[in-house]
Structures are given as C-alpha cells and as structure tokens.
Specification:
The structure holds two protein chains of two kinds. By secondary structure, chain A is α+β, with helices and mostly antiparallel strands. Chain A has helices at residues 14-25, 42-47, 67-77, 89-115, 118-139, 152-157, 164-171, 175-178, 180-190, 193-196, 202-218; strands at residues 5-9, 31-34, 56-59, 62-65. A four-stranded mixed beta sheet of chain A has the order 2-1-3-4, covered by helices on one side. In chain A, helix 1 (14-25) runs parallel beside helix 3 and helix 7 (164-171) packs across helix 11 (202-218). The longest helix of chain A has 27 residues, at 89-115. Chain B is an alpha+beta fold. Helices cover 60% and strands 8% of the residues of chain B. Chain B is built from eleven helices and four strands, in the order βαβαββααααααααα. Chain B has a four-stranded mixed beta sheet, covered by helices on one side. The mean pLDDT of chain B is 97. Classes of the chains: A alpha+beta, B alpha+beta.
Chain lengths: 219, 225
C-alpha cells in the first residue's frame, strides 16, 4: 500500500497520455483517478496547489507534477526496465532539448489549428507543419527519436497524434502530405501497446475538442 | 580534456545561470559574448539553428541549447558540487521549481515593460507569483536546494542581477523584509555566496542598459496608443 502509485488523470489530456505511456512501458501497476477539471477534486488541489492541473503522479503518498518531470521520475525510480532516457549525457541533453521543443511549440500551435479559423488558423497550420518538418529533420532515418529504442522524445510527442484527425478536419489538410516521415513514425509508435492503449480514439478526441471549441467561442 | 565554450550575453539571466553552474563546479570554459539582439554570430546560428538563442554550451564540439537542458548536462558531466539532489523525488521537486521560475521569468519582467493599467496588473501578478515561490517553493529552507545552492536557486538568481535593477529603474520594490521575508533572506544568502558574488554583471551597467530599454518600451507603447 505504501508503494502505491496513483495517477490523477484525464483521458483526453496529451500530458496525461505521456505519463500513461511511461507507466505502461515500465509495466507499473497504478490506480488512475479521472479528474473533472470543472470540478477539481480536493486531492488534486492538495497535491498540485501551484498549478491545480493534471497529470499528477502520487507515489508513496508524495506528488510529482508536470508531465515531463513525471516521466523522468518514473524513468529514474523504475530504472531497470525499458529506459526512456539514454545513458550518455550528450544523448540525454538531446532528448531533453527535443522534448522541450515539443512542449514549447506543439500544444499551443496545434490548439490554434483546431480552435480557430481564418487567417489565425492558416498561420497556425503553416507553423505546425514547419515544426513537424524540423522534428522530421531530427528524426532522420531513425525508427524513433531515441534511435532504435522508443524513448523520452517519442513519449513527449506521440500523444499529439491523437489530435491529428481533429486538426486535419478543422484545418482541411492532410498532415501526411507535408510530413510523411512523422506520420510513419507515429504509426510505428502506435504499434506499441503502451502507446495504443494510452491514446484515445482520434474521432473521440475530435468530438471532445469540438465541445471545448464551442466553450472557447462562447467566452 | 574536451574544450568547453559558452555563448552568452552579459545581461542575460539565461546565460548567467550557466556561468554560475560552470563556476560552481570549477569548469574551465571559453566565453563568447554575443552582440544581441541584431548581430548574432554565424557560429551561434550554426550551433543553435532551431531557436537561434543564447545560451549555447559547446562541449568537445557538440552544442547543447536551452539553459535548463544545459544545467542538467553540466550536472551530469561534472558531478562535483551537485545542482540536483540524489533522491529521485527531491530531484523532481527541484526540477519543478526550476521550470516554474524559468517559465515565470519573462512574465515577471512585464512590470518593467508596461505602463499605466497594464503595469498595475503586472505588478499585482508579480506579488502572486512571488507569494507562490516563497510559500511553496522556498518554504523554510535556506536555498531552494536545501542547505546548498541548487538548480532552482540558479534560475531564481535572475532576481539579484536583473529584477532588482528593473525595480530601481521603475521605482517599485517587491522583495522586502516585510513583504517576502524568506525570499529577502534568500537574496542575501544567495548573493553572498562567493561564486555568485564574483560573477554578477556590474549593477550600474545593468541599470544603464535597462534605462535605454525602458525608453524603447515607452516609445513603442506611445506609438501603439
């Protein structure tokens, strides 16, 4: 009971997906507590008083917050199985740099693609494709960003694949046309059970995001 | 021994935190001052094509960009005087605060960049941010890292060489003994550390630099109204 792992979770959050993937890669058993962000639990507010956001990993009663920090924590505590970060400091720095790139660019730009219209949306589409092309440059001919092994950068990015249908439908474009390597990489990741079980169905995400969009438009 | 180079800007807290890390660990390096913002060197653009920003650390010819990534790299390659704790949970807490303060840094400068009502809002926002940092981040510890300086201290360190001069130029004071007693004590403890004390940009040079920037912001605000 003392070693219990609890995840304050949200099915639709790409950030929570990162943690679910990491836990699955390591074969860690955990309890997922689904949060309702319009009615945050007292546990969430207590465990993440600063951001009041999911995901939060609670291990041995102590909270770890921020998805990439959680993934690193998981990698360090359960170090004997499926390492997510490489061992050489140079490669680790590279993995962190690209995960940081994903954090800085993909969420905000992707959101503009499904949430806006007109000129703002067109600019966001262009920027998103640009970012994906940069990532493809980094990927090169490797199967994963981590090389032969699925790793930290892959975990940071793959949840956004669940947004593809929504972005393509709203933006009226096909990501595969401009970013074939990235889509091939995403499909490769989806063949991993840890990923396919952690990412919701893209249509379900589309419906959810359209609901969010209505709320945003109403504000 | 692989050569270490650091591309930075004298006034930037983002490269300053890397300087502090290297100095704390006694790492020899060659410093390359960049002429920002309009005259970035070809080398910098070659080493950081993605963001085109400082700081960039180049070790044995290999570039590493993004200051928090650089700090973790430095801590792994030169483990003496560690910046991160050994315990995985404590490390996650240190990383959380380094990230939080890093992300709030530019927000905390808005009081310096804005005027009128917008400035008022920015000032109030800063009080909130500092309250959070003091209560949840620092707590009753001497440093964010505990008894010794850690990565979050190096990130919050921007307060002593950038934030305080900004306060001086604008005429507002946030961290005082009666408003934020623990942060106030932290500032004293941090700035008295020999490595930190010996490696801060000259205060009056920063103030002069900031006065020029304040006027630029004022002109731009005037044109936008």
């Amino acid at each position: 009971m003392a070693d219990e792992v609890i995840l304050l979770d949200l099915w639709s959050s790409p950030f929570a997906m990162r943690v679910r993937i990491a836990l699955a890669e390591k074969g860690i058993e955990y309890e997922s507590k689904e949060e309702d962000l319009s009615n945050k639990s007292s546990l969430l507010l207590k465990m993440n008083p600063v951001h009041k956001q999911i995901p939060v990993l609670i291990h041995k009663g102590r909270p770890v917050c921020e998805s990439l920090i959680i993934v690193q924590y998981i990698d360090e505590v359960w170090r004997d199985k499926s390492p997510l970060l490489p061992s050489h400091p140079c490669d680790r720095a590279n993995a962190r740099f690209w995960a940081d790139f994903v954090d800085k660019k993909i969420y905000s730009t992707g959101k503009l693609v499904w949430a806006t219209t007109g000129e703002v949306q067109e600019a966001a589409k262009k920027e998103l494709i640009g970012c994906f092309n940069v990532l493809e440059g980094e990927l090169g001919d490797k199967p994963y960003f981590g090389g032969d092994k699925f790793g930290f950068t892959d975990v940071s990015l793959i949840p956004f694949y669940s947004w593809f249908y929504a972005m393509e439908t709203c933006g009226n474009f096909n990501i595969i046309e401009d970013c074939p390597k990235l889509v091939a990489w995403a499909k490769r990741c989806m063949e991993r059970e840890s990923v396919s079980k952690s990412l919701p169905d893209q249509y379900k995400i589309y419906c959810f995001l359209m609901g969010l969009k209505k709320k945003l438009d109403a504000k | 021994m692989d050569e270490v180079k650091l591309f930075g800007f004298w006034a930037s807290p983002f490269s300053r935190r890397v300087i502090w890390a290297l100095k704390l660990k006694g790492v020899n390096y060659e410093y390359m001052e960049e002429d920002l913002p309009y005259n970035k060197s070809d080398l910098l653009l070659q080493y950081n094509p993605v963001h085109k920003k400082i700081p960039v650390l180049v070790h044995g010819g290999k570039p590493i960009a993004e200051s928090l990534v650089i700090l973790e790299y430095i801590d792994e390659v030169w483990p003496q005087n560690p910046l991160l704790p050994e315990d995985a949970y404590e490390r996650s807490v240190a990383r959380f605060w380094a990230k939080f303060i890093d992300e709030k840094t530019r927000t905390m400068w808005e009081f310096f960049q804005k005027f009128g009502e917008e400035q008022e809002k920015a000032i109030q926002n800063n009080f909130e941010i500092l309250r959070t940092i003091e209560e949840y981040g620092l707590g009753d510890k001497k440093f964010f890292g505990g008894d010794r300086i850690g990565v979050a201290d190096l990130v919050f360190g921007m307060v002593i060489h950038m934030f305080v001069p900004m306060e001086e130029v604008v005429g507002v004071k946030f961290i005082k003994a009666d408003t934020f007693p623990r942060l106030h004590a932290w500032m004293k403890n941090f700035s008295e550390q020999p490595t930190i004390k010996d490696n801060v940009p000259d205060h009056s040079k920063v103030v002069d630099f900031l006065k020029i920037r304040r006027e630029l912001y004022r002109t731009s605000a005037h044109h936008n109204n």
